[in-house]
Design goal:
Blueprint (H helix, E strand, L loop, with lengths): L1 H6 L10 E8 L2 E4 L15 E9 L5 E9 L2 E9 L5 E8 L3 H8 L8 H4 L5 E4 L3 E5 L2 H4 L6 H8 L10 H4 L7 E8 L5 E11 L2 E9 L4
Parallel strand pairs: 1-6
Antiparallel strand pairs: 1-2, 3-4, 4-5, 5-6, 7-8, 7-11, 9-10, 10-11
């Protein structure tokens, strides 16, 4: 188990469990497998306070934990690929459990069946604009795989990278227009979006790439 490898001092780290690893712990980070992965490997036991396992597309998984040990509490997020190999580990020393829960353990929303049947990208707005269904049909225009967008952006549209005219249109009704979005390669995509509104949800009914027009 990944938590045992990271935290338990006598548990073997299996190097073959990792691929193209990115590791980050508070202010320390490195790319590629390193013995520094054992930086917290000093405990006899730990207690999981909260956990969540999420499929994030293309058979990738995200595992999130809040873990208590005798001298500290950590938030640990692990990403694995379609072969179950671990490629991303993020660890924070927790100062506020409630804040970690708010950011990384949002309430899971169950999409109505009739909305799922449309097979269109769906947005839900709270403090963020969240992609909650059929994300790939939208993120592909931004140069992302759906799992990669969930990893980098937590499936929230990045306000700093989006036309403010788009953000300001979420007023409990449908809207349409051409809006600018920052791509994964830092170029700009200009997309025509036709967005409908049903019971608190925004459905992207149509996407047309206007970037080169």
């Amino acid at each position: 188990m990944i938590l045992d490898m990271l935290l338990i001092k006598d548990y073997e780290i299996k190097r073959e469990s990792f691929i193209n690893l990115y590791f980050s712990y508070d202010n320390i980070s490195f790319v590629g497998y390193s013995d520094n992965i054992a930086i917290l490997k000093k405990y006899d036991s730990y207690k999981i306070l909260k956990e969540r396992d999420t499929k994030i597309g293309e058979y990738h998984h995200e595992y999130k934990y809040i873990v208590n040990v005798y001298d500290n509490t950590y938030f640990i997020r692990v990403l694995s690929n379609e072969d179950g190999l671990i490629y991303d580990i993020l660890i924070y020393t927790v100062s506020s459990i409630n804040e970690i829960i708010k950011i990384f353990f949002p309430e899971i929303y169950e999409l109505p069946k009739e909305i799922k049947a449309l097979n269109k990208p769906v947005l839900k707005v709270d403090s963020n604009v969240n992609l909650i269904y059929e994300e790939k049909a939208f993120t592909a225009y931004l140069g992302y795989e759906d799992w990669d967008y969930k990893n980098k952006c937590l499936n929230h549209l990045d306000y700093s990278a989006i036309d403010k005219g788009f953000i300001n249109n979420f007023k409990n009704k449908g809207f349409s227009g051409v809006y600018s979005f920052k791509r994964n390669d830092d170029k700009i995509a200009n997309l025509y979006l036709n967005i409908g509104y049903v019971d608190g949800l925004y459905i992207i009914n149509e996407i047309i790439d206007k970037t080169n027009n």
